[in-house]
Fold this protein.
Amino acid sequence: MQSDVHWDSEEFRKDSEEQLDIRFVEAFVRLIQMARIHKESNRLVSETADEFLYAGRGLLEESSVLAVESRHSRLFIQGERLLFKKQSAVAILSLLSYISRLGVYGFEFNTQLNEISREQAYQFAVDILEALRYPHPLEWLDQRLDSEEYQWVSIIYSLRQSRSEISSAEKAEMVHQLYSCSYNAIQEVSEKLSKNQSAGIRKPLRVVQDITDLVFVDKSMLMGSMTIRDYDSYTFTHSVNVAIQAICLGHELGLSRQSLVRLGICGLFHDLGKVDIPLEIINKPDSLTESEFRVVKRHSMNSVRRLIKLEATPNLLAGIILPPFEHHLRYDLEGYPEVGWSRKLSFFGRIIQICDVYDALTSSRTYRSTPLSPDRAIGMMLQESGGAFDPVLLKWFVNMHGVLPVGTVVELNTGKLGIVSHGGDLRERLLPSVLLLERRGEEFERGETIDLNQHLGRDGRKAMKVHSTHHPSEFGIQPFLYFMEA
Ligand SMILES: [Fe+2]
Ligand SMILES: [Fe+2]
């Protein structure tokens, strides 16, 4: 069937070049994401394929070729770099992630795009997903696009022109956006459930997929976003943090994208059962009474009860129920709810449990005003390795955070204060990078970023050393804001 995209040049003139660029990228990403779950007969798929063709044909009106390229982690359309804007940043990074995972540098569409049907556009998205199932996606896709029906698109195999990388500030801005979307997604579901309304899983699934795409682009920045915490509800920021940590740890362990998404959903929903705990108990500043603690202990089971009522496919639900049930059980099966079996916790359950405890230790709670600095939290967890935590997974977790976790505030031997912006590498014995803070009265301003490995004294030894570590709250600062400044 031929696409019934109605081409109206008047209408086209109303669209700026930039809007068409973004519309094309967004439609391209959406089409790939939809091809994962919907058949081509689905109405949304048809609309998205039409949008993809509409924007692509609009861009081709000015040129005989439409090139979509990745150059050093930036996306270029017709040789022009697309800027990260609030609305489009996630789509741009998602497309960059697909391009990178395929092992290509991009795609070139020619004027035969004007002739293809929406089914052919959909099939292209299906083939991109199919290619990603193979160990060498490029080989498979290369052969596939060699066929008659793909005269309208070709692969860009090499880097055409190099430019500088995405600035850290741009990435940070984009991660901040995603953090806030994730917070809203879990808040919306929880509020609906507490009003006994039905809630779907589409929005949470979308944000978790976006987080997963990002982990392939800049894991360090994503881990740093745990320090954002500038929202009202501890439970929701905690849920987002656990989802992010779990996806990062799963990525470190080499899990597939599909597994990472499932793990992220488990993280986001692990405390869903807290909607059943009265607020007086949740916000109580003092220690809980025995009966109040009994109420709190029910939330793992309540998370399961709430989860199975969400509007989602039985298949997806079946894959995300166990870890929320297990998240307060220790590796040695102590903890709650009491279980009468000796079967090991599930793999995802052990991951969520580590991420849950780490975030709880490093955050301010009503009953503990001083949170632990990230390195002290890790030190404390290491003492429980093999008892509370799976020792192998904990080791991976510690290695992932490096010598010092991103966002830790450090005082150097020079007296300067800074924020860890890259954790270093325990295995390679590489020290962290630190973003220095310059005191201006009561405030701190962003200074230069220094790599502690590079600062050697006359004797060849490291001249700058970390003297002490602190939690950002001790200085009233929010590390992620400093990452976002250009
Ligand atoms: Fe919990
Ligand atoms: Fe939790």
The beta strands are 65-71, 74-77, 80-81, 106-110, 153-156, 409-412, 417-422, 433-440, 443-451, 466-470. The chain is about 45% helix and 10% strand.
